[in-house]
Predict the 3D structure of the following.
Amino acid sequence: MANYRIAGETGQWEIVVGLEVHAQVISNAKLFSPASTAFGAEPNSQVSPVDAGMPGMLPVINSFCVEQAVKTGLGLRAEINRVSTFERKNYFYPDLPQGYQISQYNTPVVGEGTVYLDMPDGEVVPVGIERLHMEQDAGKSMHDQEPGTTYIDLNRSGVALMEIVSRPDIRSPEQAGAYIRKLQSILRYLGTCDGNMAEGSMRCDINLSVRRAGEVPGTRCEVKNVNSVRFIMQAIEVEAMRQIEVLESGGAVELETRLYDSFKGETRSLRSKEHAHDYRYFPDPDLLPLVVEPDWVERIKQSLPELPDEKKQRFIEQYGLSAYDAGVLVTERETADFYERVAAGRDPKVASNWVTTELFGALNKAGLELDESPIDSAMLGELIDLMQDETISGRIAKDVFEQMWETGKAPSTIVEEQGLKQITDTSELEAIVDRLVEENPTQVAQVQEGNKKVMGWFTGQVMKATGGKANPKVVNEILQKKLGA
Amino acid sequence: MAELTDLTLADARDLLNQGEVSARELTDAHVAAVESARELNAFITETPDLAREMATASDERRAKGGARPLDGLPIAIKDLFSTREVLTTAASHILDGFTPPYESTVTRNLWDAGAVLLGKTNMDEFAMGSSNENTYYGSAKNPWAREGDNRPLVPGGSSGGSASAVAARAALAATGTDTGGSIRQPASFTGTVGMKPTYGRCSRLGIVAFASSLDQAGPMTRSVRDAALMLGAMAGHDPYDSTSVDAPVPDFEAALTGDIRGLKVGIPREYRVDGMPGEIERLWQQGMDWLRQAGAEPVEISLPRTRYALPAYYIIAPAEASANLARYDGVRYGHRAEDAKSLTEMYERTRAEGFGEEVKRRILIGTYVLSAGYYDAYYNKARKVRSLIAQDFREAYREVDVILAPTAPSPAFPVGDLVDDPIAMYLNDVFTVPASLAGLPGLNVPAGLSDDGLPLGLQLIGRAFDEETVLKAGQVLETAADFRHAPSFVAGS
């Protein structure tokens, strides 16, 4: 991709972006308590005395959450730290019952890794992962229930989060979007986070600074808690513009925390450096250092599914797909599996076209997910089979597809019921051609004078006469023969 | 039969086993004793009805032939242990009305062993103090008095109520907790036996946290055998406390063989601090002689970093406390300031009203030493000192099996004497804090009287998870000292 540049009043600017993603770990129980993590329960119905910060309660690490974090680390091609520590991050807030968040500060469970972004133009952009650490989520303050009163829901208090911190390797809003989507893809493949930003199970903080092309980055700002890919991309654009305007008007960017207002399309200061919290991190004396044994890590590694990058490479090699098509197909594991079922024993490129163009087109139009599709992989495969054995033509196939979508009927049933079988009977088609030749001497003359367009017109007339069921190849042969063109 | 309240825990157990007395009789006698000892202010909450109920259930179990190790024995619980549906205050205004919906592991172990709850004992607020004067519920008093001096004395702290109740015969035994000396020092002040086990021996789950890396529950009793009995019931691995150690709990009572021949007893030269009162020094020498006479071999040892223990402790403990006490914010339970105009004001006033002066002092110290720019100079340095102190002990234990030292630098002092001098108060912990920092078991054994007739104790410090040697040597000291003095105040008399 061409370098992303913002034209300011005084010249070209680049952006330097790092993202911190908070990903909720898929786990039935919380990070340090057995309480449920199910979304959407009655407020305060999934709260253990540990999550409520009751006196004398102690955290006990949930080893499944550790396994999920390690799995994620392996999926990010990152190093796994054999020993990591939990620290207390101290601050007061009503939805933080202990008065501190247990997080990993000095030594995270996962160290450096890399995520590869597949940009639409085919460029592959590596983004460094600095670390992944585990921490507890806080509860939720609800200010809108009753004027002058704040209610606290602690269901989320203590839920396990993975904070995935990227290096400042991102250079455009598109790359930021691609990074988030790639993370979602990897985490969903691994089954370690559902990546659902709308439900808050994935949230993002943006660290952004600007620089004149090729120079060192300036002071960064953090834009907190952005909750959709679109908003992340927008927030990057508007925050970059803001910083450029500040710098170009002779000002200085302040190190501060900002919020993105998606209604107004602007970022606003939340707190400046002077008001930054002193979190007084120190090792949590209630927890021993976390030790993950190399054997255990190795077992997890062996159990990892094929991840998007590997799958994409295989699709390119095994099915001869373009990098772009392969990339589209592997984004979701379910899609890739669907495609592979359709492609099995069939022309893989035809299968890819039908899945990515026809099926995805229809799904998009209807706003449906793949698992809600009225057409399953077996039906789509059967349709391709009908085309490949020349029972129906490609054009008819599209009609059949539409009817499959509407009725959920099998393609063979639709073809049967409506007599859509392709006409390959030469005598029947010859009769039609003969009649056309007889009725249209002018056009015949034009063809014989070498006008190829009119040849097409004849083909169209045959199709019209047969309701599109004529085998185009056979029609062509007959026309060639009869018109001598 | 002797007065029921004057029995040791072991003797009471034996009488119950022999059918000489019922749990109900024993409990009634103690309920009456608790009531008659109210002037000591040793209890924050008395639970006579619950005690009788538990005693009756115990008698029923026994009748069916299913008696447990402590069945029917009435004890007191420091008000730092969460007791299900029984008010649990940590002696703090900020925990007003707090009745936990859960039971601490240690008290559950005790009830599972058949023990009977007499009530919750007074203490220094959040276990911060050495005199039991830092309490929302008024000072607990020592049942002992100086000869010819009626001024009330402190029972020591922070487990002052437990010590006072046990010394005054208002409970057969009690639980305490020890962070820097909170079991051993009050035991020394009241002529009782108190043991801080190895860190990790007893679960901390359900004990209101003061300094998590130091807090440890332990028994307070009138004999070493009783301490062994209690500890056996209290201890054990708890999967819900990550710092509890998965090690078998030995039969501590069986360790009391009386045979310490060949035992090497370390005498740390650095504990001979400047200005140590002659009576303390003489008692220490007497202890060495007793152990030598029993066949042990006193060996002078060096614990070179001892002088840094107290300052390191008064950084680490407040640092952890500053985070542990952040949860008392008025949001979910306990005291909340009324009519606050803002969240910040609610926090500030709740905590200003709810915490006592000493607790506030330690939160301030702890917050300070963890602050950006001070962390390395204070907290991190203190952690390094701590690991060096632990190393001192490890090296010493290559040569010796147990260490003998005084427990406290003085006998009990009058209520009010040190309240305005926190440093003097902190110095009470000078002999107990090193073992706390190293996580080692320590035992106070009453060994003699001061010049003005107050109990003085000696401390034995053992290897990690070697409470058995500590108890064994402790019992030998106890036998040699033959400490039969009773306090001037005895419940029911």
Notes: The first strand of chain B starts at residue 43 and ends at 46.
